[in-house]
Design goal:
Length: 360
Amino acid sequence: MARVHNFSAGPAVLPESVLLEVQKELVDWQGAGLSVMEMSHRSKEYQSIIDDAMATMKRLIGCGDDFDVVFLGGGASTQFLMLPLNFCPDDKVANYINTGAWSTKALKEATIAGKKMHIAASSKEQDFTCIPKNYNLSENPAYLHITTNNTIRGTEYHQIPEVPSDVPLIADMSSNFLSRPYDFSKFSMIYAGAQKNIGPAGVTVVLIRKDYQKNLLGGIPTMLDYKTHLNKGSMFNTPPTFPIYVVGKVLHWIEDFGGLAEMHKHNVEKAAYLYDVFDNSDFYKGTVVKEDRSFMNIPFRLPTEELEAKFIAEAKANRMNNLKGHRSVGGCRASLYNSLPIESAKALNAFMKEFEAANK
Ligand code: PMP
């Protein structure tokens, strides 16, 4: 059966070659006589799988051994809480740049955790259609948190904000992690749910710089304490073994693709197939300012909601799935993560032009 063009915002398309490899190994992993799903996480076979995933991740971000990698359950949403609990002492202030629904959720958790919280910048008044270019830190900041790509609104940081050297920069990279070569060395901590660019749902990657780990507060419930997981190599309890295994394979796929610079080129090229349509039409309208357009998630509007519903239905009939915008904002959205083949972007480009000609 031919696969659809999958524009889902996540869980999202995976490389077909990875799925086929997983299929091949599903029942009998590399002659071990059992599936990865059936393996003890304490076995030497599984240890080799997680070690390889961590090592590949480190090679891809290109910071040597400066970061430790942990694989956790609970989604990126649990990181919204773990971050302030672990890294914001009561006499300091958790600082956030608010660029959309996910940042808003992140900053709310700092308050729920009983911490002082400060919004250093926000694009809320612009209806989250841009990335703020300036920010004002509070006194005594514990860290500055940004969301590098805003999955719902379709904005992305193309330049990482400069921070004073004593202010740790933290990023939720859930929807553009490993899609482009950021200078990862600027961050003290990075987290990302796997289910967009690097694997299936069920595992969240957290990278914590070794020199930042001295700031870990401790004295918090065991499973929410990064120390617990760092000290045990993500094996304090049973990690999400199967998702980590698939992530490892996707990371190799990214490496074989040529790494993050090549991946970025591929993503820019795909996004251009959509942005070119907006820029040459009054029928489709992008919803964000040009300079902050995301290469990953591309929201757009048609002249009426009826036309949007028709567009989404006809696209689906043409095997282009998941083009409905997030329920909080409506409209349409195409997500073009790493694994989406260029053919899918070309197919959508052609379909958009045909639909415009037929419905204008
Ligand atoms: N941050 C961002 C930027 C996201 O896009 C999402 C999920 N769409 C989340 C956090 C929440 O992730 P999870 O569902 O893994 O908790």
